[in-house]
């Protein structure tokens, strides 16, 4: 079987993804409208031409900048994303190159393109929920193979020497480098996954099990691990534990899925009554409480062992603390820009623990991906082309997404 040339990495990635699976290829042909479907199955030599043509169809992005990588970047705190070209480093001995197929849109991307946390640098290509196909590996890399599905989350490097790095909690390393809105040691800005490819050190690349569809797997790299990690760390993973999830968005719906897989009883606490039916009947939550409904909140008071708070905007903690039992745990993972008010009475009189958590370490992220594959868990996604990205951001502001936008990079962005 003829393999597409590596100097056409996108076709090569598609080939690797389709190889050996007529079903997958049929899907690709359907999605991207190859001209000659009959000639495609299982024969790269014939599928390359029509699929290639279809893949490049309609992709006419005129980008500012120069370099081998094409992405969409915000130029200032208006947050509007437009095509932007830049250079990725060549693959070094310890690196792998990932041809990106899908990139999730996290609310943190929105906070940062609008400089809501006050630390943004522009131009900024966001994206830290990255999956794709390995198209090149460095000479020291033995555990990643060309053609494999791989992912990158929020971090791409750390010091490797400190106490946190020693236990693979690199997210708390002072020398950590973020996937975008960060800087390499030479000062060059890191750029994220709303782009065609990424070159990353093997220590920060994840193996994405082949059984997980790439689209649904992408948001696991942030939304997935950010909820999985605190639920494990704070012991909210024991069968029968009564847990609450505040905010049914990208992170929140993953917390519900983990909770059910751990055998917990899960209550969703939401501002959106319209999400009740889906929460109970599709995501499998046990209970649904509307946080703006006083009677429902009073009825649920003192019933929960732990709460994961995923809310992205300013909100009043004391309302939610009332839902906890004595010794309950309240874990903050949402990062609104404004500080919380924490009344001492609410905490002291029930011996509550109020904690926080940042993504998860690399080892635990791999564990989470393997757990997801074992239990058939992926994110619920709305797939979009890159040209829809600014509209998607507007919809995210309005809390209008089920439950994660994922950009179909391979279908809409060609370098
Ligand atoms: P998202 O999809 O927009 O979900 C946030 C949810 O919060 C919404 O779906 C909504 O749920 C609820 N909400 C929104 N405004 C609210 C308000 N004013 N009062 C109460 N609830 C409100 O966002 P996401 O991607 O899941 O991210 C959530 C937050 O986590 C963001 O701040 C993000 O930056 C942060 N984050 C943190 C980490 C970390 O490492 N700790 C990692 C990733 C993201 P309902 O409709 O159900 O109320
Ligand atoms: Zn994120
Ligand atoms: Zn370190």
From TrEMBL:
CDD domains: CAD1. It holds the Pfam family ADH_zinc_N. Keywords: Metal-binding, Oxidoreductase, Zinc. InterPro entries: ADH-like_C, ADH-like_N, ADH_Zn_CS, CAD-like, ER, GroES-like_sf, NAD(P)-bd_dom_sf. SUPFAM superfamilies: GroES-like (SSF50129), NAD(P)-binding Rossmann-fold domains (SSF51735). One of its GO terms (molecular function) is zinc ion binding. GO terms for biological process: lignin biosynthetic process. Residues 79-398 form the Enoyl reductase (ER) domain. Its cofactor is Zn(2+). Belongs to the zinc-containing alcohol dehydrogenase family. This is Enoyl reductase (ER) domain-containing protein. It comes from Chlorella ohadii.
């Amino acid at each position: 079987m003829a393999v597409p040339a590596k100097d056409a990495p996108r076709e090569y990635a598609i080939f690797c993804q389709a190889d050996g699976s007529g079903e997958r290829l049929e899907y690709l042909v359907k999605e991207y409208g190859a001209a000659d479907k009959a000639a495609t199955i299982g024969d790269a030599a014939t599928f390359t031409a029509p699929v290639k043509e279809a893949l490049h169809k309609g992709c006419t992005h005129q980008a500012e900048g120069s370099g081998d990588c094409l992405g969409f970047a915000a130029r200032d705190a208006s947050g509007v994303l437009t095509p932007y070209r830049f250079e990725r480093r060549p693959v070094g001995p310890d690196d792998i190159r990932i041809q990106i197929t899908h990139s999730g849109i996290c609310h943190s991307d929105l906070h940062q393109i609008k400089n809501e946390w006050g630390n943004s640098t522009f131009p900024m290509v966001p994206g830290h929920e990255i999956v794709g196909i390995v198209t090149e590996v460095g000479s020291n890399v033995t555990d990643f193979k060309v053609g494999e599905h791989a992912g990158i989350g929020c971090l791409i490097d750390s010091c490797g020497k400190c106490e946190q790095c020693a236990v693979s909690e690199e997210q708390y390393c002072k020398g950590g480098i973020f996937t975008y809105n960060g800087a390499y040691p030479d000062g060059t800005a890191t750029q994220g996954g709303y782009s065609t490819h990424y070159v990353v050190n093997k220590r920060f690349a994840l193996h994405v099990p082949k059984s997980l569809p790439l689209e649904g797997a992408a948001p696991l790299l942030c939304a997935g691990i950010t909820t999985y990690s605190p639920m494990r760390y704070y012991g909210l993973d024991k069968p029968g534990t009564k847990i609450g999830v505040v905010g049914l968005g990208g992170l929140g719906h993953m917390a519900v899925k983990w909770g059910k897989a751990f055998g917990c009883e899960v209550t969703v606490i939401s501002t959106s009554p319209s999400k009740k039916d889906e929460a109970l009947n599709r995501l499998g939550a046990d209970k649904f409480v509307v946080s703006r409904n006083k009677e429902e909140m009073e009825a649920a008071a003192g019933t929960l062992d732990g709460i994961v708070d995923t809310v992205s905007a300013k909100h009043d903690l004391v309302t939610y603390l009332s839902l906890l039992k004595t010794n309950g745990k309240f874990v903050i993972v949402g990062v609104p820009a404004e500080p919380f008010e924490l009344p001492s009475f609410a905490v002291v009189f029930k011996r509550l623990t109020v904690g926080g958590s940042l993504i998860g370490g690399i080892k635990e992220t791999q564990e989470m991906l393997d757990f997801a594959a074992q239990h058939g868990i992926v994110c619920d996604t709305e797939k979009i082309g890159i040209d829809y990205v600014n509209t998607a951001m507007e919809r995210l502001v309005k809390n209008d997404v089920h439950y994660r936008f994922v950009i179909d990079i391979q279908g809409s962005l060609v370098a």
